[in-house]
């Protein structure tokens, strides 16, 4: 199979972790006789520095010319402490999601057995947890009108959803539920928000087409609590952009670490694959970042964009084998030094390839 | 001391738990020689059924005539499954917060040592955790303009904050931090939202007046993760209405159960004291609800509204003693049947009084 992959490494540890992701792609290509070609493009802080634009036109053009995108991370602390900055790295990420119509963000949360000890949650609550989040990615308060009043003393953002936007992601989530344990939990705040009431109306309607799926609706506050109290009650979780952002980061504790979580952003055409962790400037360039989320993103790419199931399985098995052999990056170590071997980013990459 | 207390029991288990809260108030009055008088008022589903209005005028009048309010809960599943309902129980709660100017919601999260085992989080991550949330309560997407477009195919809510609103709650949170461990974490989503950027600007400005307080800013997604990963890193947490709703429910897992968490809603005059749990219709009327959050709300009332510190301490000690003696309601039992004695709502109340 011939595929053209665009690597958008972005900021901070994005560089280091996508480098490992790419090595894994190369190894898979060699092993299975595929031909993967690559290109690179800028985004985020790196793009602002180089071009004055967090999402250069060339990045969009190259994205559209690719079969899939391997994405790193965006962000830089300098903007976070400056609420008045006009240009922000995150505009690159939000812009590319919108430009490519990537409305569905899939975030599988599954614990590797070897990491049971790495979480702050008790193992008996985690064992067997297996959640697939569907986070809507191109609507909500992220993309509604925002601004200030004239004297800048009031600021607003608009949380907004259309039936069409809710329906298309709901259908994807129900379809996925049908291939899994046939349970779906839709999360909103319908007791307060009008956009959530529309969300719930549409999900109830779509649910009628999937009578086999057992549907529940939870308010976001209750869902944030239940996710920690009883993670195993969830199968597919369907939610909006903002609530999805919050719940999936929280859910990283179920998988032991943010460093283990991959995501696929898909729409009608190309898919973008990225770790859910951020640019982590505090550890960037030190060679200690966990590359496994990027590697697991590669597995999602092979599976979802290219339909290469056994190639994806091979990557998952490699990750499992490395963990079973006791190799860990710092963030997923549980301090049991007798059995654990702590590796840096590159060494972990080399182990995976081997 | 003479005080007039309005009991607004509301819906579901609100009735049962405020009954215990009131008994505790009576016991304190007897023991310390105070004179507490009481009145009752309707809200929520109960008020809709009786008067057709989730917040009858009489409830506001009685509230304004009281020295403090003991609140139960609002909500009813029948509205949750009907996104098009015009009248909703929650309108009563939101309406009274607004009508009385209760802009600051204080939610202390502190684990009773005896409940270390009741949480899904490992005890070594919980021991010593002590967080005080300041949730803004009369602004944000709860109260901004909301609606539908003409053909009802799009729905929106406006997330909105003014400098004035942010400043007054920030000042309260910094003042509290000064009496505690002098750490404050402000939570927003300033990398995406304009209202969060205003929030961060104002908090940064107020922070200058409190140079001794060690301030950090976290994005809501990271905060939702860190709260579980490392609850002890937090002292005072300051956040908006929506993010506060989510984080405090999530944080209930740090305290072992929602049934243990009380909150104080204060503004410039009267205070309203309520459990953070909801109306829980699934267990309402069964006599199994945990009344301790209502009892701890009473302790907050005695302390904050009446300045009765030793009376508040007495209530806390009673809760501690009952837990130490092994008494539990179902929700906080950890299954260790040899040492635990499971009680219903009333029996737990009777134990506390004793
Ligand atoms: C960087 C930020 C804009 C982004 C988001 O909020 O969507 C990130 O947190 C994510 O989850 O991908
Ligand atoms: C009942 C609901 C409107 C309310 C809220 O969201 O504020 C509740 O969840 C709370 O936290 O007090």
UniProtKB/TrEMBL annotation, chains A, B:
Q: Tell me, which GO biological process terms does this entry list?
A: L-leucine biosynthetic process
Localization recorded for this chain is: Cytoplasm
Q: Give the GO molecular function terms.
A: 3-isopropylmalate dehydrogenase activity; magnesium ion binding; NAD binding
Reactions accelerated catalytically:
(2R,3S)-3-isopropylmalate + NAD(+) = 4-methyl-2-oxopentanoate + CO2 + NADH
A GO cellular component annotation in the UniProt record: cytosol
| Cofactor(s) required, per the database record | Mn(2+); Mg(2+)
Q: Which SUPFAM superfamilies match?
A: Isocitrate/Isopropylmalate dehydrogenase-like (SSF53659)
> Which pathway features in its UniProt record?
Amino-acid biosynthesis; L-leucine biosynthesis; L-leucine from 3-methyl-2-oxobutanoate: step 3/4
Cofactor: binding comment: Binds 1 Mg(2+) or Mn(2+) ion per subunit.
Pfam families named among the record's database cross-references: Iso_dh
Per UniProt, where does Mg(2+) bind?
221, 245, 249
Spell out the residues of the site Important for catalysis.
Answer: 142, 189
Q: Which UniProt keywords apply?
A: Amino-acid biosynthesis, Branched-chain amino acid biosynthesis, Cytoplasm, Leucine biosynthesis, Magnesium, Manganese, Metal-binding, NAD, Oxidoreductase
For this protein, what is the EC number?
Answer: 1.1.1.85
The answer, when asked if Magnesium is one of the entry's keywords, is yes
What are the binding positions for substrate in this chain? 97, 107, 135, 221
UniProt main location, coarse: cytoplasm
Pinpoint the Isopropylmalate dehydrogenase-like domain residues: 4-352
Q: Could you tell me which PANTHER family the record lists for this protein?
A: 3-ISOPROPYLMALATE DEHYDROGENASE
Similarity annotation: Belongs to the isocitrate and isopropylmalate dehydrogenases family. LeuB type 1 subfamily.
Q: What does this protein do?
A: Catalyzes the oxidation of 3-carboxy-2-hydroxy-4-methylpentanoate (3-isopropylmalate) to 3-carboxy-4-methyl-2-oxopentanoate. The product decarboxylates to 4-methyl-2 oxopentanoate.
State how it assembles.
Homodimer.
The cross-references to HAMAP family, in alphabetical order and at most eight, read: LeuB_type1
Extract the NCBIfam families matched here: leuB
The protein's name: 3-isopropylmalate dehydrogenase
Could you tell me which species this protein originates from? Fibrisoma montanum
The major lineage groups are:
Bacteria, Pseudomonadati, Bacteroidota, Cytophagia, Cytophagales
* UniProt gene name: leuB
